[in-house]
């Protein structure tokens, strides 16, 4: 891993937890810290993207009032469940 050398202020308790996890995972403290921060950033970005999509969907609904009938959604979900069950069956 090549990167910048930044400083983080961590409580001793959190530092100890992270050091223990790093040792158990066979990673250096820095590698684990980067993985944890990266995973957190990914999750935050995903939540922001989902919120933006929710807002856009609501705006489209507010503009035209169109909805998808419940029966259409139910049928789509049943189809997806059936396909997932087929894939899960041993060949």
Q: What does the average pLDDT come to?
A: 93
Could you say which structural class the secondary elements and strand pairing correspond to?
A: mainly alpha
Shape: flat
Share of β-strand residues: under 5%
Q: How many strands, which pairing sense, and closed or not: the largest β-sheet? A: none
Share of helix, binned: over 70%
Number of strands: 0
Sum up the structure in keywords.
mainly alpha
Describe the overall structure:
- It is a single chain.
- The protein has about 90 residues and is mainly alpha-helical.
- It has one domain.
- The chain is built from three helices and no strands.
- The radius of gyration is 22 Å and the shape is flat.
- It starts with 11 loop residues before the first helix and ends with a helix.
- The model has no long low-confidence stretch (mean pLDDT about 95).
Note the topology.
Layout (H helix, E strand, L loop, with lengths): L11 H14 L3 H36 L5 H19 L3
Concise structural overview:
Helices cover 76% and strands 0% of the residues.
């Amino acid at each position: 891993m090549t990167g910048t050398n930044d400083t983080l202020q961590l409580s001793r308790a959190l530092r100890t937890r992270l050091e223990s996890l790093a040792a158990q995972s066979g990673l250096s403290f820095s590698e684990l810290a980067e993985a944890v921060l990266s995973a957190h950033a990914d999750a935050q970005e995903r939540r922001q993207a989902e919120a933006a999509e929710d807002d856009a969907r609501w705006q489209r609904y507010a503009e035209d009032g169109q909805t998808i009938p419940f029966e259409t959604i139910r049928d789509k979900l049943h189809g997806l469940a059936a396909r997932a069950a087929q894939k899960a069956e041993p060949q």
